[in-house]
Amino acid sequence: MNSAAGVILSLSYILGLLSTAVWWGKYAVLALGIGAAFVVPKFWRTGSKAKVWLAVGIVGLLAALYFQARVPQPLANDISKFVHAQNGKGQEQVVTVQGKIASTPRLTQSQRSQFWLEASKLNEVKNGENKPADVSQGVTGKLYVTVPLLQATGLYPGEAIAITGVLYKPKKASNPGAFDFQAYLAREGGFAGLSGRQVSFPNEQEERGWGFWTVRQRIIHSQVRWLGSPEGQLVSSMVMGSQAVDLPYDVRNEFIQVGLAHALAASGFQISLILGFVIAAFGRFSVRTQLGVGIAAILIFICLTGVQPSVLRAGVMGVGALIALAMQRKVKPLGSLLLAATVLLLFNPLWIWNLGFQLSFLATLGLLVTLPAIIKWFDWLPPAIASLFALPIAVLPWVLPLQLFVFGVVSPYSILANIISTPFLSVISIGGILSALAGLIWPLAGSTLAWLLYYPTHWLILLVQFFSSLPGNSIAVGTISIFQVLVLYGLISLAWLNKWWCRRWWFAAIIATTLVVLPVWQTKATLFRVTVLSTPGEPVLVIQDKGEVTLVNSGDDSTANFTVLPFLQQQGVNQIDWAVVTDSQLSPRSGWAKIMERLPVSTFYANTASISKLWTLGVKIPPQALPVGRSVAIGTSAIKLINSQPPVVQLQISGQSWLVLGNFKPEENERKLALLKQLPPVQVLWWSGESLQADVLQKMQPKVAIASSATIDPETAQTLRKINTKLYTTERDGAIQWTPSGAFETTLEATENDVGISY
């Protein structure tokens, strides 16, 4: 097989894995290969023969089948099989699970410790006593565990522990733009989670084991000892990657926000430093010795970082470079990159959908094919300075389409931030590796070398904070479609491969920009949509009115951070025109402060009783009172606060009347009944799922009823069905969206029979 055929077959394998995005993809690849076998040889006589193109279709089909075969599936005795179906009444399944820790405990954004557990035994806790669960054998499977921070102190991989807590199955993303926890666990081979409360140790006499985690901890401790936090963790992250180090989330998020996420990922830069050190230190020895030492050093580094796809990519390419050096052959960078991708995807085909894997290869491809041409633009500068400008510019076009597809955000200052920060990153990375090596031999020496990096590291953090505080530091353009992604990469490939397009790269850039900006502008100018977000507790509503955005309520800080802000980012929202607070009992954990850190608010309306509480939360613009009984215009819609506490709100949205009911206390039933009987008919009723009187519902005659809960009072549900009301629950259906020209649409596919109504 010649090299051209090998390249074609490698690409067909990758294409086959990508085809798994749709169910018919593998058949399309097979048809493409068969069609190419008949057509291509007739027009390209010097190219590959028909049998090679036929092999393309077969390899692509086999790749898709191999991918499906490697998708993790729970075994018959997987611990997820013993999660009880929730009965809708809020009972928790409290269990004690025994097993061994499979990963280093890490800090989560909710300030809990998280790790994977290889489960081996399950006991169910009932009435405060341990009672064996209904199992005839031990359990298996990976379990996603979170425990209080203090409970995780001293835990290490391989340790046998028992955890008492609540067993649950992860849920799909119930809101647009939200993190799909269920899909994430499935990719990692886990199908259940445990919210731990207490950790105990069945084998208290067990000796502490050894692993690469001990080496990792030794390095981190030596670097943090005199550098402190977060400088120490940042140095360790730049040596071993943020996946191996608990870098504070505020620092991590700021680096991501300004386009410096790659600085926290161990990859090619560290591998190149390791290879440079090996060649310099062992240059007097034989080539075989250099090869052996280099491969050993790369393997040790990969184990230290926790076997991350980006590091493996750099490691495979590094080993390829060493082998080429030993055989005295010239390295073909593109061939090396393709070989690395093929080898890694043969090892784990599921990595084809790993974002870190994708970004790592795209960034490396950009450096290989775009960097030489861009450096020529700056040939009037010294080479070292020219590379500072050329590196971020070369990478940006290759990673930006994928970033827009996944995140829908552009960092305007990313190129400038990368240019200014590159000297700091180089000094800290080199110094960090030297400090790590010294710390392994003598921790005090490692701490001393790390201390010398304090000012470069501190200045880098200040630089990142400066860029993240600038106005417009991240612009949400909204997520783009897969069609736009394919066209963008097609334009980039043309500018790389075709001489005519290469000379007119600026024309391709204009087309690409138009392809992104024009649909965004058209959508904002024409879209009118109401979104009821699936949130616990306080109801949250978003009205998108031809470019103007109204946000009613924010939820708590967790809801704002993980639900509201990701949704607004996905929709390309950079400003809230009207913010409305309906609840008078505003929680100290209200999410408004977090939202206003990220998005400016033009006008703020609030329930009179909550205005003073908003000031304590750090709201900087003066909220206007939302008067009881008076309609207030919010764009083309209107809002009226009918009752202050609990809040009863009426919304007039594009000719529809929406009624939002707060939770009444049981002793307030008579007042609630009297209040609701005074209300006119409504098209949409949104409430907590609690009991509502049949005569009230008969008078309201809602066309649609939305319950912000997992269960609905059975008599209320029966009454709503009798009057032909379409019934939704955010727990079952996820976020619910409505446009004037269409029906209500749900985020999750479900039938009404799935709703947790307890008869």
UniProtKB/TrEMBL annotation:
InterPro entries: ComEC_N, Competence_DNA_uptake, DUF4131, RibonucZ/Hydroxyglut_hydro. Residues 22-200 form the DUF4131 domain. The chain crosses the membrane at residues 12-40, 52-69, 260-282, 289-305, 334-353, 359-378, 385-409, 415-442, 449-468, 474-497, 504-521. It is a multi-pass membrane protein. Its main location: membrane. Residues 246-499 form the ComEC/Rec2-related protein domain. Coiled coil: none annotated. It is found in: Cell membrane. Keywords: Cell membrane, Membrane, Transmembrane, Transmembrane helix. This is ComEC/Rec2 family competence protein. It comes from Funiculus sociatus GB2-A5.
